[in-house]
Amino acid sequence: MAEVLEFRVPAGSAQTLLVWGLEPTHSLFSVFSKFGLLYSVRVHSNAAVAGPGCYAIIKFYSAADASRAQHACNGQRLFQNSPLKVCVCTKQKGFQQQVLALNSNKCQELANHYLGFNGWSSRIITLQNVSGFDDENEEVGKKRSVRYLCAVEVTLPNHGVRTRGVGLGEADVESGEDPLEFVTATRRVQKLAVGKALSSAFQKILLVVLESGKVAVEYNHAAEEPTDSLTEEELEGLVQVSELPLEPFDLEEEVLSDLTLDDELPVWEVPSN
């Protein structure tokens, strides 16, 4: 049976494992990553009433990978003296978890795992400074608002799929701040806009993982935006006048420390403002 993966934070109970009976020293990531790509491994100390030790919550992107890991590891000693207890988390009735879009770093990690490093590429269509459009709303002498709009295109050449994403990065900077600090803040806002645009583009891609291990790709029409039908010239024109009809979506926090304009998207050059 095929499994469909989205570029979103795994929220299903079937993708989540609960591991308990952990001793203080453990190698969870190295053991469980052998079964498939992991979104996260979080270890917590037991409550005082439960005695010494730890438990962990492990999230896979694929429910099939989580199931294989559970069956293989439950009751096994693996890296410690006592056997581990591993189970698939049960869904809590009446509780609906918010589904977040993956940040750009996680999107690239997921794409690299299932499509290969050469299985996709991306480029910036436009990156424009739109800071001046709301100057009339800013308090004179207090803060300057720095805003950049970015449009990115993601291409999957082996599957004939091409998607676009648009993102807005913004931050308030003190007017009296050191010029170098202002330049640094501007670069961070640019990176944030690029990251959000890249994540937005990946939201329109569905990975269909077959039982054989092969991966097919589908276009996610449910995530389509009005800007997807525009030509590049029309898109750049809308960015320049700050009239892009941005569709809001809940995004996992971007990790800017790992995101640079030099190596985030190696196939493009940053357009001048």
Overall description:
There is one protein chain. With 273 residues, the chain is an alpha+beta fold. The protein contains five helices and ten strands; from the N terminus they run ββαββαβαβββαββα. Strands 3-4-2-5 form a four-stranded antiparallel beta sheet. Strands 1-9-10 form a three-stranded antiparallel beta sheet, with no helix packed on it. The chain has a three-stranded antiparallel beta sheet with strand order 6-7-8. A hairpin with a 5-residue loop joins β9 (205-209) and β10. The longest helix has 24 residues, at 179-202. The protein is globular.
Give the helix proportion (percent range): 10-25%
- Uncertain ranges: 256-273
Total helices: the number is 5
Quaternary class: single chain
Structural class: alpha+beta
How many E strands?
Answer: 10
Walk across the major sheet and give the strand order. 3-4-2-5
Largest sheet: 4 strands, antiparallel
Give the topology string: H per helix, E per strand.
EEHEEHEHEEEHEEH
- Beta-strand percent range: 25-35%
Radius of gyration equals: 22 Å
Average pLDDT works out at: 81
Distance between the termini: 49 Å
**What would you call the shape?**
globular
